[in-house]
Amino acid sequence: MGKLIAIIKREYLERVRTKWFAIATLLGPVLFLAITVLPVLFVSRTKASVESTNITIIDATAAGLGARVAAQLRDTAKTTPLVRVTLPSELIEAESLATRAVRDKSREGYLILDSLTVQGSKARYAGRNSTTVPDMSRIGNAVEKAVLALRLEGTGLTQSRIDSLTRVDVRLEKTQLSDSGREKSGAGSTILGLVVAFLLYMVLVLYGQTVLRSVIEEKTTRVAEVVISSVRPEILLAGKIIGIGGVAVTQMAVWMASSLWIGANVVPMFLKSRSPGMGAAAADSLARSNDLLSNIPTFSLGLLVALLLFFILGFIFYSCLYAAVGSTVNSESEAQQAATPVVMLLILSAVFIQPVALAPQSTLSAVMSMLPFSAPIMMPMRMSLVAVPAWQVAVSLGGMLIACVAAIWFSARIYRVGLLMYGKRPSFAELFKWLRYS
Amino acid sequence: MPDLAIDIRGVTKRYAEHVAVRDLSLQVPRGAVYGLLGPNGAGKTTTIRMILDIIAPDQGSITLFGKRHTDNGVLDRVGYLPEERGLYKKMKVREVLKFLAELKGIPGNEAETRIVTWMERMSLKTADKDWGDSKVDELSRGMQQKVQFIGTLLHDPDLVILDEPFSGLDPINAQALKDTVVELKARGKTVIFSTHIMENAEKLCDAVCIIANGEKVLDGAVSAVKAAHAGRTVVVAFDGAPDAAVDAVLRDRSMVANMDDQNRFLELELADGATAGELLQRLVAAGASLQRFERVQPSLHRIFLEKVGATGVEAGMSGHG
Q: Mean pLDDT of all residues in chain A?
């Protein structure tokens, strides 16, 4: 037991004392903030994109729809859309003219309104920003409102009445309801879920690789032989995984604590200090992002425990595999190739992070969160997004436990033999033989 | 039955392709300096690794100080210097040594005082410079060897196992190692080392075991081994090159079984039935101008070559040596 502690202590202290650890631990939260908060801010800011108004509106409706759309867009920005009224027969000519304007960069794009638009079925937009979601939804909204206003006018309502009727801007506030009745902001949950998933993925990759490198170091420097003349290789492996896992948990704990602190104290201050002197639109978007940020749910205790549990199991699983790989190779460059199967399992999990985050209740999500190799990433993410049925959590945990036992059994055998084998990297057939040695 | 430090009985270790050690038995008395001799690939390292429970034998038993070597705490009494040396490169010397001591069950604070003593003794800590706070890879090769050596002895083991301890040592460290072995013996410790350099073994060892192809060829006290092979070896030297008549005598297979030209003298092994007196008479009759004619005890080297022959060398696999 004393020897196991000596190994854990060495693995832990040697890593925690490095500069790399200090830097990564301190800068981590700043990085997370950049990843999580800045996109939210950016998305809110681009709501009132200038580009959405710097366009040509080609109006072939003969009903003055173009001017109405322009008026809707003008509401929120300084630049004004250029309205060109044409006959339907001259539409092609007008379009090529507008295309030229886009090419020489005087305009961002053009919007074509015709009889179909008045009927309410379609309008056409072409431009450089046609993939910018906020711009497109803004223009689409403006067209819809203009068509609505036109129809209302047809019913004989006065202009001021129409204006007041169409001035609608509903903001959908999303709240996630779970079985226990706990409430969370939908958008906030998604962000939290993604943060949790990427954090787990990152830590599993980083610290799995650390185990790999640590095994290779002991093997290539031949210090392994001295160590296992004093302790059994299983103890060395266990001490290594516990020690490095401890480093990972330490780092995650610091990251989470400081992220939450920054989220609670620094970000609101930062947002408030920027408030005065902003336009109405900017203030509005700020209100939205403020709202979003304040809705980022705090980690509940249950989620935290689940996170830790899944991380520990996932870390044991992956670091055992990494250790087995490390013991079969002779150098770090060889390890890159040999570790590919393990890396593939992790990447496969990472690829599904987004699909699962967007549809956490789907069958795919349920399956991914119960497969042992992707469970440590997917299940905590799903749990932070939706209320996962208890049986799924149980299946997931049970599966991982079995997978961990298998990984420990497998890698302890490979490790024991591999640590003293130098020269050619073993084939799968040889690895199979190693399993039966001890 | 004498008090044994190591008692190996009928140990066999097979690998997929070959047998590394076959039915090996050897006894090392407590307090002896014992040499495990053999060509590369003979099974020396495999034997040592089995003693240390790094690998498990397929058959046979190993006892250290009368207890099974797998028993709790038994291996804490053993110090091991592997053939391929290495330490954690990025760790401070003092930390590495402390870690190695802790692995042998020495508490940290106790280890620290011992480390200082040893480092001073090995001149790694002097009035001007303390290498204890340097990282291992900042040390020269010679200094790293010293650190490793300290790591082997820090827990004051009763049995010290050195695998090819002289390979790669500079003359100064080799001398220090030799002195330490002698001192360990004086303090009643048992030292076992493997080597394929017979001169070292001959000088240092009380007893030896020669193995080849994983099997024991001979073992016993060095004096006994040499005595058993005595009387068959003659050293001769001539003034000038021997002429044809003398050469004919030397090449007579009924007289000389084996001849080894050592440049300044010839080492001859008498053929069965031949005697030294007979050889001397024949040489004088042939008109040889003898500078030296001496019956000597054979060197371990000679016995080794005689016993192992060319067949024992080059066989086996490296890495299981």
A: 81
Q: How far is Cα A244 from Cα A218, in angstroms, rounded to an integer?
A: 14
Rounded CA separation A82/B148 (Å): 82
Q: Do B99 and A10 touch (CB under 8 A)?
A: yes
CB pairs under 8 A between A and B: 66
Residue A427 in contact with partner chain B when CB distance is under 8 A: no
Amino acid identity of A346? L
Residues of A in contact with B55 (CB under 8 A): 420
Taking the CA of residue B308 and the nearest CA in chain A, the distance in Å comes to 27
The fold of B231-296 is Alpha-Beta Plaits (3.30.70)
Q: What's phi and psi for A352, nearest 5 deg?
A: -90, 0
pLDDT in tens, B205-230: 999 999 988 888 888 888 888 888 77
| B40 CB-contact burial (10 Å; exposed 0-12 / middle 13-18 / buried 19+) | middle
Give the whole-angstrom CA distance, residue A202 versus residue A253.
14
Q: Hey, is the C-beta of A228 within 8 angstroms of any chain B C-beta?
A: yes
Does A406 lie in the same domain as A344? Answer: yes
Backbone angles phi, psi at B312, to 5 degrees: -75, -25
Q: What value of ipTM does the predicted structure carry?
A: 0.81
CB contact under 8 A, A420 and B76: no
**Which H/E stretch holds residue B128?**
none
CA–CA dist B166, B174 (Å, integer): 6
- For residue A355, the one-letter residue type is P
Q: What is the DSSP string of A395-422?
A: HHHHHHHHHHHHHHHHHHHHHHHHTT--
CA of A219 vs chain B CAs: smallest distance (Å):
9
| Cβ proximity of A52 and A138 under 8 Å | yes
Question: Is the separation of the CB atoms in A58 and A143 below 8 Å?
Answer: no
Identify whether A171 is part of a domain: no
Rounded average pLDDT per 10-residue block, chain B, 321 residues: 84 85 92 90 90 90 92 91 88 94 92 93 86 91 90 94 87 88 93 87 89 88 83 84 85 84 85 85 88 85 76 40 37
Binary contact (A14, B151; C-beta < 8 A): no
Asked if the Cβ–Cβ distance from A226 to B102 is below 8 Å, we say no
Question: How many domains does chain A contain in total?
Answer: 2
φ, ψ (nearest 5 deg) of residue A337:
-70, -45
- Domain boundaries along the sequence of chain B: 4-224, 231-296
Q: Do A6 and B52 touch (CB under 8 A)?
A: no
The CATH number of the domain where A151 resides is what?
3.40.50
